[in-house]
Design brief:
By secondary structure, the chain is of the alpha/beta class. It folds into two domains: about 130 residues, no CATH class; about 160 residues. The chain has ten helices and 14 strands. Helix 1 crosses helix 7, helix 1 runs parallel beside helix 9 and helix 2 runs parallel beside helix 6. It is globular, with a radius of gyration of 19 Å. It starts with a helix and ends in a 10-residue tail after the last strand.
């Protein structure tokens, strides 16, 4: 009962904030706020960085090469400190977003690399087995969780991080183009919030249901809570048009490439290793969402267990995005404990900006 009341209050507060929020134009993210990082030895990484800079009009002085050789899954704390030192001279107060144009490494020891860049490396954001804990557990809370946009950027040295890459340059190029096309588009479409047959990975279902009950339609987007537990099909979400949101839980989400996704669309699936590499086998990678036409996603890089706090909260994500936040702001606000999860996509996509 307590949890139900708590979650309902979070949703109510967020919805009220959506109605009354007034953000000063100077607080809105622009290309001038982005530092684009690429691997010096990686031709594709540099090419993605240059294309992003050109299309988003990021100043060339804000493209920075970092010293990472090859495609290791993870780097050490020491190596991460070296990289931070390499980019430190570029981290002035104007830089609010760090964009990583590679898909590996995606970890710094036990943390995701996007969380390490934003929160600083700290084992309090990890939940691996230790002398104190015999299994994974909850972690430290992000100071950015459910923060209002007008106060978010008042926090000292705040920088949100996101990864943008693909199997090929063309994949990344299309992702960037979708993000730009999303800006100020005020789309009309559908949002699907799915409880699957996989009970272990459907722990967010009650939050999904409450969102749709409170908010069946808003700003041209119709929201649907789908319970697939008794369906004879693998999924009922296939061959759908104009999809803007798709949040679910499964090891692999079937038929995602049969749907059409609007520019700026967000989709993710709760599973243990969705963010663990572009070619991760066994569990579906978040990159499959991007390849299907989505603009942003999120996934765990190391076993998080199925704590809902470690995955995007629809009751925060959706209202934040519809209120005019960029994709990176809305996604970062929506995860209470992001230490083990990676954010991927086009960070400045902003379908409901009021420019």
């Amino acid at each position: 009962m307590y949890l139900h009341i708590k979650n309902s209050l979070i949703l109510l507060i967020t919805l009220v904030s959506l109605l009354i929020i007034s953000i000063d134009a100077s607080a809105k993210l622009t290309a001038d706020n982005v530092l684009v990082l690429y691997k010096a030895s990686d031709i594709q990484s540099k090419k993605i960085a240059e294309y992003y800079s050109e299309k988003r009009h990021v100043p060339r002085s804000q493209l920075v090469a970092v010293d990472i050789s090859g495609n290791p899954k993870k780097i050490s704390k020491a190596k991460f400190s070296e990289i931070r030192e390499q980019i430190s001279q570029h981290l002035n107060k104007n830089i609010k977003v760090l964009l990583l144009t590679w898909h590996a490494p995606y970890r710094v020891d036990c943390m995701s690399i996007t969380s390490a860049f934003s929160l600083g490396f700290d084992e309090k954001y990890c939940s691996g087995k230790s002398t104190l804990f015999k299994s994974c557990h909850t972690t430290a809370i992000s100071p950015y969780f459910n923060a209002s946009t007008d106060t978010l950027w008042q926090q000292k040295d705040l920088r949100l991080s996101m990864m943008l890459s693909g199997q090929s340059f063309e994949d990344a190029k299309q992702l960037i183009d979708r993000g730009i096309e999303a800006d100020n588009s005020e789309p009309e479409g559908e949002g699907y919030f799915v409880r699957t047959k996989d009970s272990a990975r459907s722990t967010r279902w009650s939050s999904f249901k409450r969102l749709v009950e409170f908010w069946p339609k808003q700003k041209g987007i119709s929201f649907h809570y789908i319970d697939e537990r008794h369906s004879p099909m693998n999924t009922v979400i296939k061959n759908r048009k104009d999809t803007m949101f798709y949040m679910t839980g499964a090891v692999k989400v079937p038929d995602i490439d049969t749907n059409s996704y609007l520019p700026g669309a967000i989709a993710d699936h709760l599973t243990s290793y969705g963010g663990a590499g572009i070619d991760h086998s066994g569990q579906m990678s978040v990159y499959r969402w991007l390849e299907a036409g989505v603009t942003g996603s999120y996934g765990a890089v190391i076993e998080p267990c199925n704590y809902t706090e470690k995955f995007p909260d629809a009751q925060v994500l959706v209202p934040s995005y519809l209120s005019g936040d960029t994709l990176i702001e809305a996604y970062w606000k929506s995860v209470q404990q992001p230490g083990e999860g990676i954010f991927v996509g086009e960070p400045l996509a902003c379908p409901w900006c009021d420019d």
